[in-house]
Amino acid sequence: MSVPAYTPLQRDALAELANIGCGQACTALGALLGRVVDLSVPTVQALDLADAVEALGPAEDVVTAVVLPTAGDMEAAVLLVFDQSDVARLGALLGVDPADHEMAVSAMSEIGNILGANYLEALMAVAGIAAEPGPPMGLTDMRAALVSSALASSTAALEAAILIDTRLSVEGEECSIAFVLLAGTDDIERLLQSVGLGTEA
Amino acid sequence: MVRMGELAATAGGGVLCTIGLGSCVGVALVDDDRGVAALAHVVLPDSTPHRRRGGAVETPGKFADTALPLLVERAVGEGAGRRQLRAVLVGGASMFALRRGGDAQEVGERNVSAVRDALRRLAVPVAAEDVGGGSGRTVRVQADGTVRVKVAGGGETVLRAPGAGRVRATSRPTSPSILRSAA
Q1: Potential cystine with A21: which of A122, A187, A194, B157 (Cβ 3.0-4.6 Å)?
Q2: Interchain CB distance below 8 Å, B135 and A54
Q3: Out of B21, B24, B72, B127, which one is annotated catalytic?
Q4: Residue A62 within a domain
Q5: Considering only CB atoms, which chain B residues are within 8 Å of A148?
Q6: Least confident window among A11-20, A44-53, A192-201, B169-178
């Protein structure tokens, strides 16, 4: 398979880029939730599509996924996956009635928008790429159906997806949000080159 | 388990399964009399834009045009009769509508019509289908030709029973262009 074998240093760089984006996202999300928010990115992996779907958790579980595409110089997207328990908890922090699922999905879209847009903006700024995040799309369904569809509809992520494990804690309440960068290997290479870690360097 | 872009065949008591088909299409080929079933998890309609120099496709199971001939080969390899094969289509839902190079049509819809085209070229009739709509599906295929479908939070229903030429699909395609291409 053509999954690029990134070195530990390159994976650290991708995680660090994600951390920079998350740092920016924290402030914005904290303001929205009215709570102290902490985000960290412990691991980054590059995976084949089938492996990426599996790595995100039980395939048939119902989850809410938010996709944030980019438009511009780089065709990429960010996919965030929320377990239903986290949807309920984060929704409650935003004052969403637990019975109102539509509102909860919309709230997750907004959280996904803040996290994803800040992350993408940080990546683009570091790499000097001109692209803008588009509007978020949120859906609730079987995990594998959402993840595989997001992968299939992203032109870029045909061979591999970059999986970024993200821990979000809101005033002591731990939520674990799976965060996936759907980007082509060429664009990842551009990002790595911009921090002096290109494969060909 | 048949994962994204993979395909498999079984004879005898085997069961093939794909969990959570969204815009992807699960294509089952069955030969009831010989107890052979095959299942592909098609991700995209066309391999042409993704060929390496020299024309080779690295992952034929991913694309409708390359997966279907391979699937027929596998089923026949397990002992199925080439002319006894019947197809059952599941999936091709419309999920995230991401912009894809100005192509207005949804991936799911394009997958379904590409799978139908490939089956027509291979002269394999479609016995049953549950395609389109906006929900993910899980499909289970038994070697005796039984095909079961499940949606999120719902029970499992039998889409096709052994020997059945055509069982009505449990959900109607919502997109008019899918209806047109089905006609």
Answers
A1: A122
A2: no
A3: B24
A4: yes
A5: 4, 20-24, 43
A6: B169-178
Q: Above 0.90 for ipTM, yes or no? A: no
**Within-domain flag for A201:** no
**Burial class (CB within 10 angstroms; exposed 0-12, middle 13-18, buried 19+) of A33:** middle
Mutation site for A-interface testing, chosen from B1, B2, B4, B148 by largest number of A Cβ within 10 Å: B4
- Check if B17 is active-site: no
Tell me how close the Cα of B59 comes to any Cα of chain A, in angstroms.
8
Q: Most confidently modeled of B74-78, B91-95, B178-182? A: B74-78
CATH no. for residue A183? 3.40.1550.10
Residue A184 lies in a domain: yes
Residue ranges making up the domain that contains A17? 8-194
Number of domains in chain A: 1
Q: Which residues are bridge partners to A63 per DSSP? A: A83, A141
The reply to whether A199 falls in a domain is no
Q: How far is B58 from chain A (nearest CA, A)?
A: 8
> Is A154 within 8 Å of chain B by CB?
yes
CA distances to A15, A75, A115, B72, B82 from A127, in Å: 14, 14, 18, 46, 54
Of A62, A134, A146, the CB nearest to B95: A146
